[in-house]
Amino acid sequence: MLLGFKLTKADTQQAKRQNPSRVRDHLANERTYLAWMRTAIALMGFGVVIVRLRAFHPPLLPTPGAGWKLGLLFSAVGLLTVLFSTKHYFAVRHDIDYDTYEPTDRWVLLFSLAITLLGAGVIYFIFSVPGSQTTLMSPE
User: Fold this and answer.
1) Does the residue 14 lie in any domain?
2) Which of 47, 36, 40 is nearest to 108 (CA)?
């Protein structure tokens, strides 16, 4: 007897028939969510690293440059990943509970596009920033 309600054998069998792997599905959803969180943290960390690289390799020109913009963009995508993955986690959790889950491709495609654009930005940044013209050997 649970909270004044007596569950019959038919009730428990019907609940089991609806989705026998419900717990496994919830745990998989949580693992996926945690993987998205690790990705978001890595993106934000990479954004900080891009901004801080300027301190280790000062440019020839004293202008602020575009590295901070790329770092800010990485951090913003990391924050958006936190928001979208949290929203997606709760939507999937609801769908698992009501046995209506249908996988969608839009978030995978959107995130893949974002990472592709960020990667292209990094490649552009690396090859467009003039390197240091100092050498280890000083001319005499």
Assistant:
1) no
2) 36
